[in-house]
Amino acid sequence: MSKISIISALLLGASLPTLAIAQDAKKGSETIIITAPRPQLPSQNEVKGTNINNDGAYDAASILDNAPGAAVIKNGTQTGIIQLRGLSQDRVKVVVDGVEINPACPNHMDPPLHYVEPHQIAQIAIIAGVTSVVNGGDSIGGTVIVNTKAPKFSKSGKDEIGGNLFGKYIGANEGYEGSASLNLGLENAAFSVSTAKQHGDNLKYKGGSASNTGFDMRSHKIEGALKLGPQVFGLELGLRESRNVGTAPLGMDMVIDNSSNAILSMKGDYSFGKVNARAFVNDIDHVMDNYTMRSYTAAASKMKAPAKSHDTGFAIGNEMNALGGTLRFGLDGHQNIFNVTGENITTHAFGQTFVNSKRTRLGAYGELDRNYGDNLRGVLGVRFENVESNTDNIAIVMMPMMQNAAKNAFNALNKKRTDKNWDVTASGRYKINDNLSLELAAAQKTRSPSLVERYIWNPSSTYGAADGRNYLGNVDLKPEVSHQISLLGDVSIGLLRIKQSVFYNKVDDFIQGVAMTAAPDAILKFSNVNAELSGAETTISYILSDNLRLDGNISYVQGKNTSSNDNLYRIAPLNGNFALTYELGKFELIGEVKFAAKQDKVSKYNSEAQSPAWSILNLRGRYNLNEETRVTFGVENVFDKYYYDHLSGLNRVNNAALGGDLAMGVHVPNPGRFGYIGVNYSF
Fold first, then answer.
1. What is the bridge-based pairing of β-strands 32-36 and 121-128?
2. Helix, strand, or coil (residue 75)
3. Which of 60, 141, 254, 407 sits in a 20 to 30 Å window from 678, CA-based?
4. Nearest alpha-carbon partner for 313 in 284, 280, 336
5. How far apart are CA 111 and CA 96, in angstroms?
6. Helix, strand or coil for residue 545?
7. How far apart are CA 192 and CA 125, in angstroms?
8. Cα-flanking dihedrals φ and ψ of residue 384, to 5°?
């Protein structure tokens, strides 16, 4: 039976008002990023500054790269995996237009943000750490909610036709992005259609180019909205195709990826409260191989791996005045069905990796948000979830002589598992005066193991770890249970505003690979350990004059495997950015400094290498030619530095055989100096 999970851009301290901001943002042509590393009032949520907007982004994940508490794991140009406060992968819930997307690739070369073009995004909400139970469960790191542009109703009472044309060139990879959309708005109905295309060649860095880093993608979407009395119904149909997306740090590339989705929604404002309901289905057909883009691959080693991921789900929630405040409650669910096979192209040997692996989650929640006097606001929420996982037996293996014993042992297991998970969140915001407030939030959050973590029966590289190691699943894994606490101080001194947060997160039964032998390249079996994460974030905004302002943020997190006294793998070092923005009439000019410290707190069990510190300068500009046309332009990495992010993967591609320059085993670098220009025309 199909099931789905709720999507709401709700914050712990101000759930529904934030969603209202998010929905309004869908109506505009400019991306609005809402950051919420902790619960806040709606007036504090919206951030439109250039310190986090990135006009030079060549994929959707890059837009989040500057947000406080956020970082991006990069295994390829279009494979950005979001990390929030040191946690990533399935620990961070990513929702696109209400859809929870499970990647079809076990290596997550197609994470959820792969399925969004940057210019199609209208709004992003980032909720790091403590997250409202209304946002859904089954994640402990936070939530990223993306809304693309939606149909617009007529505001004049007359039929209105409008549209948008956009084009952008990016010199980092000789890439381009283009899109076109058309909207028909009536008083009680609205329809829109859009199409987009992205293309990029190999990445250019100071000193050369990196092979297997290009991509080619296109998407199409049709949407409709209908007002019937107090209700608004919506329908969205989307298609997306990706071809030859290079993932140099992984063993294969994404050569074919086709996805489709259908979303049905309803919003109603009734006397008893506000109702939001949603249902979706999302399908991905995915093929990865090691020979289409890596043409040097020996004939005997040519492998391909088709995969399918099928998501369905529902959500229904209600908001009403009760118990002296605002009461929110609802039901939601999500089911994923997962299949992966492998084939040797030369010998035609065929094997199964996942066979009808199924994970079903059903949840119920309630949350009370109320004021206690004029200066104190509190939120208390509870969520219960039932998570069931199962998989069929493996019938066919690629190498019977070597794999039959492991297959038979796996098939003999009772593979069905049921977890009953509880989430509890509590927060309070105390306004000391008009210039100072304090917020305290605490939560227990739970995540059940994924299908990959439980059921990968044959050792294989997985989850985009890009560490060169093979992983083995574990049917008996326990759910991760996170106990989090965070404190925020928000102070205004004249035209200066500073937000300082600190957090601590203790995770019982944290899931990671543990070496099965003492060998340096031992197989890592997914196992439960204990972990702790702690850190801080600082954001500032200072209005220097009527035309000049300074925005900036600094983020730091450290993670420990307390079971072995080792560092957690692949965590971003201290990093941040500062942007000086000058506005004059139609012009907006930005100078931005981005930086990261040396990362020497690395994982021994993954043989993780340290990374050096770096800093770069970016120059950006925006010019409004008129009300319809806007031009964006800029130069990134002005001083043409060679640098790489700690979260960038290690190159596994023989560049010498493909005409590239990057050595094997080194981090894929960030681009050298490059320029970009984009034109947006709305009518």
1. parallel
2. coil
3. 254
4. 280
5. 11
6. coil
7. 23
8. -120, 140
pLDDT tens sequence across 208-259: 999 999 999 999 999 999 999 999 999 999 999 999 999 999 999 999 999 9
Of 44, 45, 13, the residue nearest 125 (C-alpha): 45
- Structure tokens given for 1: 């039976």
Convert the pLDDT of each residue in 510-564 to its tens digit. Answer: 999 999 998 888 999 999 999 999 999 999 999 999 999 999 999 999 999 999 9
E runs forming strands in 519-586:
524-543, 548-561, 566-567, 575-584
Asked whether the beta carbons of 486 and 519 are under 8 A apart, the reply is: no
The span from the first CA to the last CA of the chain, in angstroms, equals 44
Predicted TM-score (pTM) above 0.85: yes
Q: Cα-Cα-Cα-Cα dihedral of 659, 663, 664, 667, to 10°?
A: -120
Dist CA 435 CA 197 (whole Å)? 46
> Which residues have a Cβ under 8 Å from the Cβ of 22 and sit 6 or more positions away?
9, 34, 123, 125, 145, 147
- According to DSSP, residue 626 is labeled S
Amino acid symbol at 557: V
* Separation between Cα atoms, residue 653 and residue 211, nearest integer Å: 7
Half-sphere exposure for 642 (CA within 13 Å, toward CB): 9
- Residue 550, both tokens: 């300074």
- In 129-230 the beta strands, taken as DSSP E runs, fall at 142-148, 160-170, 175-185, 189-200, 203-205, 208-210, 215-228
Cα separation, 202 vs 574, whole angstroms = 29
pLDDT at residue number 36 = 42
Neighbours of 43 (CB within 10 A): 9
Residue whose token pair is 């037996």? 393
Residue of 148, 134, 140 lying closest to 10 (CA atoms) = 134
Chain segment 302-349, per-residue pLDDT in tens: 999 999 999 999 999 999 999 999 999 999 999 999 999 999 999 999
**H or E element in which residue 406 lies:** helix 400-411
436 forms beta bridges with 433, 491
- Mind giving me the DSSP string for 628-643? SEEEEEEEESTT----
- Write b or e for each residue in 416-450: b if 16 or more Cβ atoms lie within 10 A of its Cβ, otherwise e: ebebebebebbbbbebeeeeebebbbbbbbbbbbb
Of 215, 3, 221, 255, give the one whose Cα is nearest residue 104: 255
Structure tokens at 232: 């608004």
